[in-house]
Amino acid sequence: MERPKYLTTKPQRAKGLELYAFHVQSVIDKERIHFTRPQAHFTREEKHGWEVQDSPLLPRRLDRFILGEEYSYHATFRSVLPEGTNLKTDIVGVLGDRKGEAIGIDLGGLGSRLFADFPKGFFAKTQGVVLFDSRSMLQCTDDTVSNHGVIVGDITTDKTRESVDRWLGGKKVDLIIERMMGGLDEIPHDLHFLQKQFSVLYDMLSEGGIMFIQVPKFATKLASLWVDAAREESLGTIDVKQGIYHSNQYGSTVALRIRKLPGAPRELPLISQREVRGLYKAA
Question: 34, 105, 143, 270 - which has most CB atoms within 10 Å?
Answer without folding.
Answer: 105
